[in-house]
Amino acid sequence: MPQPPSDDDALLDRLQRKTFEYFLKEVNPLNGLVADKTRDGWPASTAATGLALAAYPVGVERGLMTRDAAVTITLTTLRFFRDSVQGTSPDATGYKGFYYHFLDMITGQRAWRCELSTVDTGFLLAGALTAAAYFERDTQDEHQIRTLADELYRRADWRWAQHGEATLTHGYKPRTGFLKHRWKGYDEALLLYVLALGSPTYPLADESYSAWLSTYVWKNIYGYEFVYAGPLFIHQLSHIWIDFRGIQDVYMRDQGLDYFENSRRATYVQREYAIRNPREFALYSKDCWGMTASDGPGPATLKVAGVERKFFDYVARGAPHGPDDGTIAPWAVVGSLPFAPEIVLPAVRYFTDQVKLEQPDSYGFKATFNPTFPVASDHDNGWVSPWNFGLNQGPIVLMIENQRTGLIWRLMRQCPYIVQGLRRAGFRGGWL
User: Fold this and answer.
1) Segment holding 62, helix H or strand E
2) Which end of the chain is more exposed for a tag (fewer CB within 10 A), N or C?
């Protein structure tokens, strides 16, 4: 007889279901663009739209939307990006197969004079390839999904995005040119390089990946040795799509571990930092932790209980070197579920039962909270973000699913471009 669901299963099911609603309600059905956050008049995010494309198969498998509805919105999204204006005009949607970070929800044009973003485009393309792997039926619509995803992926000119050097740039602006920043140090560019190396049209040279690996920083923190990055999202976003268990590039072979284990250690470092709580922020503990790029209560400098503290707004918070202003992001903890469920699940329960961050209406957890920040509120635990963010919602839905069934990992193991990119990056072993 089938066993009844455990309390943990019921909790994850509810959280996944409520979080998924973001992609049903915060999407423009006419173009498939997904809002960056739940603030009136806010633009779409290319990355959030890519996460939505990956999430729709989860929605189908979990009975949260029909397959026909998922096919319709997926086709709408892919057609929009295929047909949107590519060029150097400041109000275009993209250029050279890449897309702007933020897009107007209605027109799809560039918003806020933002950059043409390599990594946000990477999330979009990864989402498109997920859709291509999932919608495999021999129907006209599902065949078109596969064709459009392939077309979008092939269009990205990764060599152009290098701007004459070995590594990839962060992006480009039409009036000022390439951004001065390049992908340096271990970060979410892991996915980006795999996509770029696997390209059948504009692939990077092997030397590009080697150049990026050379910027890694290896650290020993609290007895955990790992490739360092402070914010949790860095240790999660590439793992949404790629199962790094048992596969290693040359760097990780030399260290004797894989990126999955690296993320597990980074997760434990975050928890240990909260336990030690060197800056003495409110509520930090073994069950209350998790810092990442997130919304916050600042900018402000306030004296709290006799201590002058600086608070930030949206910034990449990290452990143990900061920045840290007492802001905790529950979504980032959930994003580490596959790496360390034994410490993540108690934290999720704490956020649910003790801090009561679940929203009764929709969208799962509140994005962030800061119990140290003094604020007049009905909430018992200080400042709570009034917004939800698409970039937060996606990892919750997708990493819960990877923990439960491995769905996204299994789909992407079937993607020849991902396999080729991993092999060209020097990955060996395991499922490869």
Assistant:
1) none
2) N
Sign of the C-alpha dihedral, residues 379, 381, 383, 388?
Answer: negative
Nearest to 292 by CA among 340, 327, 242, 248: 327
Cα separation, 330 vs 395, in Å, equals 11
- The C-alpha atoms of residue 369 and residue 325 are separated, in whole angstroms, by 11
CATH of domain 18-182: 1.50.10.140
Q: Where are the domains of the chain?
A: 18-182
For residues 371 and 390, what is the distance between their CA atoms, to the nearest angstrom?
23
> Which of 188, 38, 204, 208 shows the shortest CA–CA distance to 126?
188
For 28-54, how does the pLDDT look when each residue is reduced to its tens digit (9 = 90+)? 999 999 999 999 999 999 999 999 999
Percent helix, percent strand, percent coil in the chain, to nearest 5:
45, 15, 45
Q: Say if CB 329 and CB 348 are below 8 A apart.
A: no
What are the Cα distances from residue 194, in Å, to 40, 97, 116, 353, 414? 36, 17, 19, 40, 14
pTM greater than the 0.90 cutoff: yes
Cβ contact 182:169 at 8 Å: yes
